[in-house]
Amino acid sequence: MMRWNTFAGTLVFAAVAAAGLVPAVLALTPWPGAHTGLGLYLVAVAAVYLRGLVSGDTRRQAVCAATLAIGLIATACLRSVGDIAVILAVVLAVVRSGAIFGARRTRALLVEAALVGGGLLFARSVGPGTPAGWALSLWSFLLVQSVYFLLARVPAPVAGRTQEDAFSAAYERALALLERREV
């Protein structure tokens, strides 16, 4: 499965998600209507995005299922696509910083508030109420979300290498430096 837990990966995901919006909404329009189809597409995008951030199959399944459940409930209960987008953005922020990357609370709260709030404001300001405008809004929101990997100090994944904490890595580098200086 593809992962987009990097800055560049999220940019690619944003472009693909925005490009798929218009065909998906056109396909869903005859059945539930354009606004419900858009809400369902946003739910699917949020679930796939969060699934691509998580490592481990069991956690991927759980994050995807929880996001889908919350999104489908929001879509069934709310009539405004903007309200659905806000609910999904909050789910994204909580899951990304809280459950996936385990960021420090204060820093995570500030980063997520800035990115989710800024992303929602940017998305609202760029897109008119047309399918092409919706795609532009989705792309702009996800574009802002890609900045998370520049701000949050999330280590980039390295194939075949386990993640170690920053203290252990610094300790190992310090020991290596001390051993080289001994003569």
Topology:
Layout: H1 7-28, H2 34-53, H3 57-77, H4 81-100, H5 105-126, H6 131-145, H7 148-151, H8 166-181
Helix pairs in contact: 1-2, 1-6, 2-3, 2-4, 3-4, 4-5, 5-6
Mean pLDDT: 83
Rg from C-alpha positions? 19 Å
Shape: elongated
- Main β-sheet description: none
- Oligomer class: single chain
Structural class: mainly alpha
Would you count the extended β strands for me? 0
Q: What amount of the residues lies in strands?
A: under 5%
How many helical elements? 8
Q: N-to-C terminal Cα separation, in Å?
A: 50 Å
> Low-confidence stretches at least 5 residues in length (pLDDT < 50)?
none
Description:
The protein has 183 residues and is mostly helical. The chain contains eight helices and no strands. It has helices at residues 7-28, 34-53, 57-77, 81-100, 105-126, 131-145, 148-151, 166-181. Helix 4 packs antiparallel against helix 5 (105-126). The chain is elongated, with a radius of gyration of 19 Å.
Name the descriptors:
elongated; mainly alpha; 183 residues
Entry summary:
This protein has 183 residues and is mainly alpha-helical. The protein has helices at 7-28, 34-53, 57-77, 81-100, 105-126, 131-145, 148-151, 166-181. Helix 1 (7-28) packs antiparallel against helix 6 (131-145) and helix 2 (34-53) packs antiparallel against helix 3 (57-77).
